[in-house]
Amino acid sequence: MSTNGKKILVVDDEPDVVKYITSLLEDNGFETVTACNGKEGMETAIKEKPDLISLDVTMPGETGVRMLRNLSEHEATKEIPVILVTGVDFSFKSFIEQRKQVVPPKAYFEKPIDKDKLLAEVKSLLGVG
Amino acid sequence: MAPYNGNIEDFPGESGILFEKVPCYIAILDRDYKIVRSNEKLRNTFGSCRGRHCYDVYKKRSVVCEKCPTEMTFHDGQEHTSTHVGINKVGDETHYIVTTSPLMGENGNVDYVMEILTDITQIKSLEKDKLEAERLAAVGQTVAGLAHSVKNILMGVEGGMYMVEVGINKGDQSRTAEGWDMLQRNITKVSTLVKDFLSFAKGRKPVVKLIDPNVLLDDIVELYADTASKMGIELKKTRKKYMASAPLDPDAIHTCLTNLVSNAIDTCHISSKDKKIVILDAVEDGGNITISVSDNGSGIDYDIQKKIFTTFFTTKGGNGTGLGLLTTRKIVQEHGGKIEVESIPGKGSVFKIVLPRKQLPVMNDSP
Prior knowledge:
The structure holds 2 protein chains of 2 kinds.
Chain A (H helix, E strand, L loop, with lengths): L6 E5 L3 H13 L3 E5 L2 H11 L3 E4 L8 H10 L8 E5 L4 H7 L9 E4 L4 H12 L3
Helix pairs in contact in A: 2-3
Chain B lengths: L12 H9 L3 E5 L5 E4 L1 H7 L7 H6 L9 H8 L3 E8 L5 E12 L5 E10 L1 H50 L2 H30 L6 E3 L1 H18 L2 E5 L8 E3 L1 H21 L5 E10 L2 E8 L6 H4 L18 H11 L3 E7 L3 E9 L11
Helix pairs in contact in B: 5-6, 7-8, 8-10
């Protein structure tokens, strides 16, 4: 199955990280849109209706945790799978899984990422590849 | 105060037993600071004392201590209390609180002073342990924060490597160039981080010079006014107020001001106000030199105000190392001062460096 037409939203405050992830995804046939904080990310998610979101946790302004909650509470975005890509270590995984108000993300990647694993995860979540 | 019975050589009956056995140190001193009587616990801790000077017994000194409470009591006939560090008979540090009371003769003169000492060595040692535990906790947070910063930079480095690799494989020059830029940018970031971290961890020996603080403020305005102006921010100094030169480490204070001013510029930059302004000021009042940096930027939430000076904290995502205010506080403390912040979210912040002149470093302490 082709990756054509699958759109991924990349949210990170670090321009180099955004550049890296979007290049990687585009090189593998995905379309990308970007945002640099949780607020902009939420607006873009509603407007662009991406098929998947790659989300950073610690960002100035609205954080990734807040955006994760907003995504799950909004009709237009609650079904979009989310991958957390974060510098926060894995103890955060159990922290966020215990939050009742947040739907746990589909996958976690700790920075720096293993790009082959990230691609494989994206493809499997989107049922492509 | 009722006069003592005139006989300090002998306390009869119960009062004598009480004097000897109470679980604190008691000594009676004459006007030469010689101990004329002492109780058992004092002798057990500090050794034999009769006829010896109190400063010799408690502190192994040869002259009267500074701010001696006994001296004050002889002088004004009032009680005085202060905290001291002495050395016991086996050479260990002994912390104690001493309260001095006058023993007045029939003529109303203070003939003798009674010192009652409470040993607080154990409390001091607990305080020290607590401080050490807090320090270790802070180190833990600092290391975690450092790891987080490094991970973000590493991600940028990997991104750069990826771009270069794809660029070479596809013969795409602009890709390769973009990747190379990413690599350079992130290498610069990691070296800045390491330098900041080292200067924070190691500290540097202060190089103290006599300098008018206004000169330091002028330097900062001259250095950053252009940059600020290009971002639509006015950086200026209030009208100069006369101030005597002070012994400061100019480079270190310069670092503090750079940190505060660059924070102020950053917060103004993200605010949506029409007129953005950062003001530096230096005043001296009541022996305190106060240097302040005010901005009308976005302000700081209360819960964030609480941690900005104590933890490795940044709101600037990957662009902040979280070390600026920590380093600033450390330098200010090395100058015997303190740093304070007042901030109203949405309105702006004032950071104040308060340096009591009498606690500033001493010139001849420096190499």
